[in-house]
Amino acid sequence: MNGMGRFDQAFYDRAVVAAERPASQDILLVTIDAPTIESLGRGPLNPAVHAALLERLGGARAVALDFDFSAPDGAAPDSDAVLARAIRQHGRVVLPAMLSPLPRPTSVQPPVARLGEAAAALGFANVVPDADGVVRHATWRAALRDGVWPHMALAMLEAGGEGDRARRLVSRLDASGVGGIPYAGPPGHLRTVSYLQLLQGRVPADWIQDRYALVGNGSEVGEAYRTPGALPARGMSGVEILGNMIQAARDDIVIRPAPNWLNALACALPVLLLCLALRYLPPRGALLLTGVMFVAVLAGAFLALRYVQLWFAPSAALLGLALSYPLWSWRGQETVLRYMDHELKRLRREYPPILGEARSPALGTNWSVEDRLDQLRQALTRVRNLRRFLADSLDGIPDVTLVFDAGGRLQFCNRAALDYFRGLGVRAPRNGQPAAWLMEKIVADADARADINRALHELRPDEREAPWSLDLEVLDYTGRNFIVKCAPIRTDEGTYAGSVVTLNDITAIRQAERKREETLRFVSHDMRAPQNSILALVDLNRGRQQDAGAQHEAWTRIGQLANRTLRLVDDFVQLTRAESLHIGQARVDLTALLLDAMDDVWALAQARGITLEAPRELPQAFVRGDHALLRRALTNLLDNAIKYTAAGGHVRATLEEEAGSWSVSIVDDGVGIAAADLPHLFQAFSRVGPTARADSGAGLGLAFVHTVASRHGGAVRVDSRPGRGSTFTLGLPADLAEDDETGD
Ligand code: ADP
Questions:
Q1: Same structural domain, 518 and 448
Q2: pTM tops 0.85, yes or no
Q3: The domain spanning residue 647 has which CATH number?
Q4: Is 687 a pocket residue for ligand 1 (Cβ < 6 Å)?
Q5: Where does it mainly reside (predicted)?
Q6: Is 701 in the pocket of ligand 1 (CB under 6 A)?
Q7: Pocket test for ligand 1, best of 574, 644, 650, 682 (most atoms within 8 A of CB)
Q8: pLDDT digits (tens, 9 = 90+) for 103-129
Q9: Domain's final residue, options 255, 272, 307
Q10: Under a CB-based contact definition with an 8 Å cutoff, are residues 238 and 66 in contact?
Q11: 3-class secondary-structure state, position 29
C-alpha cells in the first residue's frame, strides 16, 4: 500500500520538485572540479592540501570534509598528522564514517583514529538510491550495535552549534530514522565554489564567514546521483545531497511516510465516499464525480507532502476509484436489467396481448441489453395499445363518462361526454378541470352536487369494497333525468386513485313512466266513466214501466255513451299507432286528401248547420308519407273546427306552398281558445275550455295530429282568439320530385 510503485515514485518526484525552495545562502559547497584536478592532479588529494584548505575556511561555522579517510594515507603518513592538527585547530570539522553493510547496516567504519579523534563530530555519509537509481531518502540516524550514529548533516548542525535543530528533526522520525529528502532544488542549486578557487583565496570572505562549508568531490569528478526531477545525465554530487539535507534540517522539514493505518484510511476513504455518492447520482454525475475524486486524491497527496511533509501513496486510492465506476455501472446495469426482466414478465403475465399484437418470445437469461430494449419497446407499445384500447372502449360507451383523479380533476372524458356538453351549450371540458366546476354546469340541485363532490374526493371506509361510491338520480339544466354513478378507481396497492363518473340518460324511461301514468288515469277514469253510466242507465230502466218517450231517451243516451267509449278507444289506438307505426314513404297528394277529409265531415257539418268551404282551384301538393295517418289528421282538424263552432258558422280550408313545404290551414269562426291553453294544446289527454260537451273526446285528437306532423318531418301550429275563432295549420315538407306518379 505504501510501496512507492512506479506511479507513486513519479508522482512523489513531481511533488518534491513542485515544492522546491530557494537555496540557503548559509551553505557553501566546495567541490573538486575539473580545473582542480588539472592543477592538483587526479586521485585522492594529499591530506596536507586539505589542511591548507581548512585554514582558508577558518571562519566557517562548520566544515565537512566528505572524503574517505577510513585508511591512513600510505604515500605520505605525515600528512595525516598535518591534517589532524589542522582539524583540531579548526575545531568544527566533521568527518564521514561509512555504514556497512547496506542497506541494513549493522556497523560503522570510522575514519582513521588520528583524524577521527581530531574531528568535532563524526557522521555517516552514505547515500542509498532507490531501486530506480533515484536518491529520495536518507537515513538520518542509525541505531547500531555500538550506539546511535547521526547522519553527517546532523553532525554538522551539532558542530555548528545548532544541535537543537538536529534533535528536533530526529524526534519526528520513526525508529528506522529514515526520511525523505526535501530537495531545495535541482543539482547546482546551492552556492558552489571550486576547491582550487578557495585554495587560491578567490572566494569572498562573507561566503565563508559563519557558513556551513561542505568539501567534497563535484559531480563530474566523484559519484553523481540522480535526484527527483533531475535529468539522468545531470547527477547530484554526494556533497550537494548533504547540503540539501542540512538546509532541510535547518528548515525543520523532512518527508515522513504516513503510517500504514493512515495511508490505508486515506486510500479507502475516497473509495468509500465515491461508492456512497454513486448510489444517489445519475450515471453522468457519477462519472464526473469519479474524475473529481481522482483530482482530489492527487491534490490531497500533493498538499500533504507540501505542507505537512507527510507522504501518502495515492496509487491504491486511484486504482480503487478507477475500479469503482465500471464495477458500479456493471452492477447497476445488472440490477436494472433484472428489474426490467421482472416487470416484463409480470406485464406478460397480467396483460395478455390485445389488439392483435405479436406475441414476443420468452425472455432468456443471457440476453443482451439490445434484446431487452427490444422487449421493452414491445412492452411499451402494448401499454400504449392498452391505453388506446381503454380510450376507445370508453369512447364507445353511449353514456356520458368522466374520469377524475384523486384530487377531483378531470383526466379523461369520452365522446358522449363531449357531445353532451356541446348539447348543453357549454365549452367542451378539458383535462385538469375540477369536478365541482363541471358538475355546476350539469346539475341544478346544490345538494346533489355536494353529494357528487364528496364521492369524488374521498372514499369512506364502508365504501371500500362497494362497486359504486354514489348512485343518484339528478335533473340537469335542460330537464333531462340522469342517474349519476361514481365508481372508485384503485391503484395496484389498493389506494384511492380517482373515480369514474357516468351519467346515464333515463329521460326516455321517465317519460314512458309518465305516459303510462297518464294512460292508466285515462283508462281508469275516462274509459270507465261511460261504462258506469251505461250500467246505471240499464239498472234504472230494468223492470220499470216506461213510456215510449222515456225509453227512447234512455236508448239514445246509452247509444251516446257507447259511442263515446268507442271513440275514445279508437282515438287512443290511433294515437298509439301514429307514435309507433313505421311511416311509409309513399307519394301522397295533399289536395286529394283534404278533399277526402272534407267529404268525411260533410255530413257532420250539414247536421250542425255549418258551412264548409274550400278554394275552387287547388294545386297538386305532393308530400311523402302515410296516406291513412295524414287523412285522419286532416279529418281531426276539420272535425274540431266543426265541433267548436256554433251553428251558422263557417269552416274554411286552404292549401298553399311556403318555403318548400305545403301548409293546410283549417280556419273557423268558432269559440276560440284561451291564450293560456295554447302551450299544452297538443299534449295527449289535455282538454281545454268547457269539457262538458257530450261530443268532446279525451284530448287525443290534437295529440294525434301533432304526432303525425312531427313524424312526417312537419309541424302543426295554432292561432286562436277566444270568441273569434281558430286557425290550425298543418305544414308538411313538399315532395319536389318531377314525376307526377301518385304512389299508392
Ligand atoms: P277532443 O277529442 O276532446 O276534441 P282535441 O285534442 O281534438 O280533443 O282537442 C283538445 C281541446 O282543444 C278541445 O277540448 C277543445 O277545447 C280545443 N279545441 C280544439 N280545436 C278547437 C277549435 N277549432 N276551436 C276551439 N277549441 C278547439
A1: no
A2: no
A3: 3.30.565.10
A4: yes
A5: membrane
A6: yes
A7: 644
A8: 677 888 889 888 889 999 999 988 888
A9: 255
A10: yes
A11: strand
